[in-house]
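Look at one such:
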Amino acid sequence: MLDFLGSLERTHLCGDLRAANAGQQVVLMGWVNRRRDHGNLIFLDLRDRSGIAQIVLDKELTPDGHAKGEQVRPEYVIAAVGKVTLRDPDSINPKMPTGEIEIEATQLLVLNDTRLAPFSPSEEAIQNEEVRLKYRYVDLRRPEMQRNFRLRHEITLAIRESLSQQGFLEIETPILTKSTPEGARDFLVPSRVHPGEFYALPQSPQIFKQILMISGFDRYFQIARCFRDEDLRADRQLEFTQVDLEMSFPRQESVFAVVEQFLTSAFAAAGVTLHTPFPRISYDESMRRFGSDKPDLRLPGLTDVRSAFTDEALATLQIDPALPVVALRIPLVGELSRKEREDNHPLFDLKKGAKFIDDFKRLAKGFPEGAAKVRQLAGPAEADFVIIVAGDPAHPVKASDTKFEGRLSEREINVYSAAGNFRTELAKKYADRHQAFRVTEQVVEDAHARNASNPIDGSQAFHPIWIVDFPMFEYDLATAKWVPAHHPFTSPHEADMANLVTDPASVRANCYDLALNGLELGSGSIRIHRKDVQQQIFQSLGISDVEARARFGFFLDALEYGTPPHGGIALGLDRIVMLLAGSSSLREVIAFPKTAKAIDLMADAPTTVSDHQLKELHIRVALKS
């Protein structure tokens, strides 16, 4: 028989009680985490979001409560009434924050029972993620998940407070908006009252936040829900949350200062100190030094070792002398066996027209001077694993590989990115041998164990960096046109304006990314605020006035009404929390995520809908046979 709560009211959370509470009468409520029956004494570990308290049911003191205690099982929902007492010195549990006390119960109410769950929240690790997602309401009870979402709340609150203190207003923008296809696919929502017409869910509040600047709000921010119909991976979901902001009359440095201030507050809320200002490098420099536009600074960068080899040596090694020759090294991995090296080969992207040399001993036998020079240039210790990556002369040259004056060619970028990808994949594979990733794991673990008001130095574990001066355009071989590397409202550098039509390859965008430990945390730009400049950008992209009007008409109208210079950025809140939680997947910090196949296993979505619903929306489903 289950009990009713009646007028009983909870007085404390389970994890909040300490020795100072000894002697107090308390009412605790929560889930039974564990039950231990010692005959006349039954011990229940009672759990809520704050932690665990031990309940003692003495058969002599509370025979009714003891009888109920014999019936309860893990995950039963109960209420316990009793007195806080100090444990005997020999029974103190130093691993529990509440380990000095226990509750001597005088009454026990069983508020609800439970079916046998597919796993217990008391388990430290559940391997089957699909089971976890199907029974998410059980999974979210686990202390690790409770910690993640408390952390998310504290980080979000710190960001809100920081931006508010910096003069930003939080303003919501529409969820149902106009489809303006760019980047990822839109999620479309059919209109019932306007047959054949559709809304779109926003990929970001981009146009609306610019209109808020035109409207005179000066500084806007939003913890914004965004939607993109794209393939999923560990750090990507169909719906996600951005820290979105826009400012009027900014310089690039103004945006950087705002972001660095609120990120410092966010990391401090997680117990970690960040040092400012963050370093910054150009896109080209990032590609040359790290083979990535979101570099992981925990690892050694790439080293140009072209000078280590003569032209004859390059020919013998079948290396293209016109392309970069770089060395990468993974500290403390050491020389690998032939089988180990062969097992690494699938991690290298051969499609990029690059090749690699990973047998350094063999290289040293055939080219001793070159190998010695590589070690001298790359500066590795004997225990470091060294690999050379270079261009493959057998890879066919495409029209899109043209070298445009003043920027890296596609073939150069391919070599650098092949080296950069190999660098990070090998570092992940051999993470147990080098210190780079373990330092981060230790800092996160230490931060969680300490009070956020006493943060620890995270400079050895978290390495934020600004990437600037991206190319304004990319050449699309299929259409033989230049296309925007970012959205078409990104402002070019003023010094490059004269080259918009005549030399688009040389134009740099006034945009910037923030990367941290190999993840892109955010992207932003100084926007175009003048109609004549916007028209020039559209002209350089081959967008006609008619097409521009159809896609962006309402925004172009707004530009004609006294638009101030403005700019902003959006950072992924989910990714920030993921990093600070020490997780490797966004699904660990999003309450109800989708699987890699875009399925909500708990709610069983997506599903078909009734013919009546489709008829109301003037839609007919045509499935391929």
Notes: The first strand starts at residue 25 and ends at 38.
